[in-house]
Write a structure and sequence with these properties.
- The complex is a heterodimer of chains A (about 400) and B (about 290).
- Helix content of chain A is about 45%, strand content about 20%.
- Chain A has about 400 residues and is an alpha/beta fold.
- Chain A has 2 domains: about 220 residues, Response regulator (Rossmann fold, 3-Layer(aba) Sandwich); about 150 residues, Response regulator (Rossmann fold, 3-Layer(aba) Sandwich), CATH 3.40.50.2300.
- In chain A, strands 7, 8, 9, 10, 11, 12, 13, 14 and 15 form a 9-stranded mixed β-sheet that branches. In chain A, strands 2-3-1-4-5-6 form a 6-stranded mixed β-sheet, sandwiched between helices.
- The longest helix of chain A has 20 residues.
- Chain A starts with a helix and ends in a 9-residue tail after the last strand.
- In chain B, strand 1 and strand 2 form a beta hairpin.
- Chain B has 11 helices and 2 strands, in the order H-H-H-H-E-E-H-H-H-H-H-H-H.
- The mean pLDDT of chain B is about 90.
- Chain B has a domain of about 200 residues.
- Chain B is globular and about 65 Å long.
- Chain B is an all-alpha fold and about 290 residues long.
- Classes of the chains: A alpha/beta (about 400), B mainly alpha (about 290).
- At the A-B interface, strand 8, helix 8, helix 9 and helix 11 of A face helix 1, strand 2 and helix 10 of B.
- Chain B: Belongs to the binding-protein-dependent transport system permease family. LivHM subfamily.
Chain lengths: ~400, ~290
């Protein structure tokens, strides 16, 4: 069975590549085959390549589990590597929308690229499902009936962490992040919850992106002696920060908290320095959810590796689209019915069931996780069914 | 900021500055003596860091990894000079920029193929893994102090090599007049090959030394490249002594910029560069 599965997956992915390479004349021919045209605009090279692949795998797994179909229709993939390059984003998105005539656009990881895609989708009224990028704007000021997100907003995990740290009776907290919009939105979300609960952010510190010379800030933190520190970092910066924080001896005296990405996909490199750190995110290791266990087994069988939060988000993008198609009997031309069905859907996600907010962002549980033996073990639900406030969204 | 915090920040800037010097010294040698604009310098730094990672996981010992890594990067430097750069001395700077930019892409892609795109950590050697308690909350990792010590030692070695050895004399002569040196019967091609190998090795060594504290990740070379050029431009092209002074100045500006005016921290170093260039368009020091 496993064999057959792999062969089908191979056929699917080659179809995707062939689709991506198709000449402008090709769509006419393909359209007659009457398949649903899915455009995947994700990073397949560069720093975020592994994230793009995980999302693609997750999406294709969901399609596979539906017997190669979504909402009763065959799927045809069109793939573009967005290279996480915001400058090329409008062109790439237009390529999929105008040349390949896709019925739905799935993308992407990088917030800058996703914002550009959002603008293109608004102009062309194309259906867009964002499977990762957390920029608040996508389901805030830029929200639109045809734009959906299956991941999270920067605000969500940070806000939940604000509540957690207030409950832990921390009074004075220092925040540190890169000075770019995602970091600033995370800190803003944290501060909102933490100060509402009576805490105080004594100092907000930012360093230029992607600078990783943390030593001056660590010295500042040691001099300020706050009760705790909240940070937003990801990738290589997260690894270095967690190690530096530990090496400076601060971890023993001033507990470190972060938005989930501080310890996601980085634990191997962070080693013992990360042990015991608390983070918040919409996914965790060791969730007691049957759906998650089934998903993890199926994913591991199909792709010979463990799924991560990105794979879950890709999987849910396919589930959300399938729910929409089911509502209109697979007829993508009935856009209003499709959108209405997607809005009403309850997604049975590996992260736990979620619905969508008015602005089309998941209303989801945010988990409090603790790093134990190189895993982000779930401790509790930090915020139940947390909805992004969708500030600036008029819809 | 109380006095002890001030002293610790001073230590931070010294330590950052010295590491910058180590990376940038190779660039200033190649740039100043051979007249080559080497955009791939950051890639050599990255290559060193990845060597430290791969070789440490193979051999289990950072020291072994560094020794093998130095030999490998010197070899790579020689081969690159022999195969590519030696053909470019008579061409203009644009060709060099194109070649070295191409090298950045090639190195980045090779890294992705060989090691992958994940972030990796390199363990600090047992012997140097302790910390020294500086204030009641802050301690300082011994490895960082060790790094600074190595940088000072290397600076002294380079000064001695260029000032007081026969090879150094030939290098200095070659940088001011290539043809004349050749006419005197010195094999200038060999000298250039040695200088280039030395520059590559210095960058790679800086990467290896920094790997345990900086961790190893894609694109890490591009981050140091720009700041290295700033060091070289402030210090004066080709001046090793100038690179040292400039690196320390940048360390100070960057560290205290982050503390005093955090909103403009990203700007501080470039303001310093603009100010130095207005005051001395050729950099603080000229020539070796």
């Amino acid at each position: 069975m496993e064999q057959g599965f792999n062969r089908r997956r191979f056929l699917l992915s080659t179809a995707g590549i062939a689709g991506g390479l198709a000449l402008p004349g090709a769509p006419l021919f393909a359209q007659s085959a009457n398949k649903i045209r899915v455009g995947l605009m994700l990073p397949y090279t560069g720093t975020y390549a592994s994230l793009g692949n995980a999302i693609t795998n997750g999406f294709k797994l969901a399609v596979e589990q539906g017997g190669g179909k979504l909402g009763g229709r065959q799927i045809e993939y069109f793939t573009v590597d967005d290279e996480s390059d915001a400058a090329k984003a409008p062109e790439n998105a237009n390529k999929l929308i105008k040349r390949d005539n896709v019925d739905v656009l799935i993308g992407t990881v990088h917030s800058g690229v996703a914002l550009a895609m959002t603008r293109v989708a608004r102009e062309t009224k194309s259906l867009l499902i964002v499977p990762n990028a957390g920029a608040d704007e996508i389901t805030g000021p830029l929200c639109s009936p045809n734009i959906f997100r299956t991941s999270f907003s920067a605000w969500q995990p940070a806000y939940a962490m604000g509540q957690v740290m207030a409950e832990k009776k921390h009074k004075n907290v220092v925040t540190l992040s890169w000075k770019y919009s995602f970091g600033e939105q995370s800190v803003a979300g944290f501060k909102e919850a933490f100060e509402r609960a009576g805490g105080k952010v004594v100092k907000e510190m930012y360093l230029p992106f992607p600078n990783v010379e943390f030593q001056p800030y660590l010295t500042e933190i040691a001099a300020l002696k706050p009760d705790a520190v909240f940070v937003f970092f990801a990738g290589g910066g997260a690894v270095k920060f967690v190690k530096d924080y530990d090496a400076a001896g601060l971890k023993k005296t001033i507990p470190l908290y972060g938005s989930g990405f501080l310890t996601d996909g980085t634990l191997e490199a962070q080693g013992d320095s990360a042990e015991g750190i608390l983070t918040t995110l919409h996914y965790a290791d060791g969730l007691d959810i049957a759906r998650d266990k089934a998903f993890r087994t199926a994913y591991a069988m199909a792709f010979k590796m463990q799924p991560d939060v990105y794979a879950v988000q890709g999987y849910d993008a396919a589930q959300l689209f399938a729910a929409g198609l089911a509502g209109v009997g697979g007829d993508v031309t009935k856009r209003e019915g499709l959108v209405a069905a997607m809005e009403k859907a309850t997604i049975d996600s590996p992260r736990g069931r979620f619905t969508l907010s008015k602005a089309h962002n998941p209303v989801q549980d945010i988990y409090l996780r603790k790093v134990e033996a190189k895993q982000n073990k779930v401790i509790s639900v930090a915020a139940k069914a947390l909805a992004d406030p969708a500030r600036g969204c008029r819809m | 900021m109380d006095f002890s915090t001030f002293l610790i920040q001073l230590l931070n800037s010294l330590q950052y500055g010295l590491l910058l010097f180590l990376v940038a010294s190779g660039l200033t040698l190649i740039f100043g003596i051979m007249g080559i604009i080497n955009l791939a310098h950051g890639s050599f730094y990255m290559m060193g860091a990845y060597m430290a990672f791969s070789l440490t996981s193979l051999s289990g010992n950072l020291l072994v990894a560094v020794i093998v890594g130095i030999a490998l990067s010197a070899l790579i430097g020689f081969l690159l000079e022999w195969g590519l750069f030696s053909r470019l001395y008579k061409r203009d700077h644009l060709d060099q920029v194109l070649l070295t930019y191409g090298l950045i892409l090639i190195f980045e892609e090779l890294r992705s193929l060989i090691v992958g795109d994940d972030v990796h950590g390199v363990p600090i050697p047992e012997l140097l893994s302790a910390s020294i308690q500086l204030s009641e909350t802050l301690s300082y990792p011994v490895y960082r102090l060790f790094m600074s010590g190595v940088c000072i030692l290397l600076a002294a070695l380079m000064y001695w090599l260029i000032r007081y050895t026969r090879l150094g004399m030939m290098i200095r002569a070659g940088s001011s007049n290539r043809e004349m040196v050749q006419a005197l019967g010195i094999n200038i091609d060999l000298i250039y090959r040695i200088v280039f190998g030395l520059g590559v090795t210095l960058a790679a060594f800086a990467g290896m030394l920094a790997a345990p504290v900086s961790s190893v990740y894609p694109g890490m070379g591009n981050q140091v490249l720009i700041i290295c050029f700033v060091v070289v431009v402030i210090g004066g092209v080709g001046s090793v002594w100038g690179a040292l002074v400039a690196a320390l100045l940048i360390g100070l500006t960057d560290t205290f910029g982050k503390v005093i005016a955090p909103d403009y921290a990203g700007l501080a170093v470039y303001v310093l560069m603009a100010a130095v260039l207005l005051w001395r368009p050729e950099g603080i020091f000229r020539r070796i």
